[in-house]
# Entry
Amino acid sequence: MNRFGSTVHVHRAVGCAGSVLAALTLALLTPAPARAQQPARAPQGTTAPAPPAPLGALAPANLAKSRPAPPFDLTGTWFIDQRNSENTWRFNPTGPFTLTPAAQVHYDAAKKAQAEGKVYHDDIGQCWPAGLPIIMTRVWPIAMIQKPTAIYMISGFMNSLRTIYLDGRAHSDPDIVVPSFNGESIGTWQGGTLVVDTKYFVDDHHWIDSGIPASDQLHIVERITLVNNGNTLEIAYTLTDPKNWQGDWKVTKRWTRVDDTDIAEVSCLPDLNDHLPSTQSKENVR
# Structure
């Protein structure tokens, strides 16, 4: 090649070398995003620490946690006030309502049995638990004990226990939860109201009213307040159960303090209920 070609070749080589050097310098000075975004790993041969075990509602460490003071304390004994409660102890609407076809079959059968002077699926008379919501309005007092982490309710009817958790836990995993007659209740404070969300109910031998069954899709929301200088407990209920009725059922109930009453041990024994129509097969339509 001539000298001009050689000169051009040398200049190109020098230019390439400079570009490579510049690229290497830039790579050394610029952090690698992929490397920077990777989370720190535990040293090889070690395991990450396990999350802390959940605390029970009465665990001292849970009770000792710092929390805002609650707007009110339900501790005391309460009795349903049927004088001022809509629809007395019942929870179905006072106006028209629409049941699903499957639930309507039960409802019609219950009406027929009632017209014949009989009862229909009176499982409570057979010592099955009343379950929520009926357990709240049975004509028996309810003792309530409020702690920072939970409210414990013990009914004078069969000593049924209901717990409302206040410690910030979420509802249990539906794949592992054990359904129950009173469900799983989680409470949160919203201003001066305690809002309680309850689900995970059993769907066998559980009734909202005579002829109106409860299913595993029953969902109950309660808005709890204290009125009348703390002497009246008021709960506004919203009930949904798409397997049994359409829409929301809303009803408000009230309880009064009964400071002269305690809850005694009570057992439901079928042989003590022999005088009840619901225990007689000829009177109890099933």
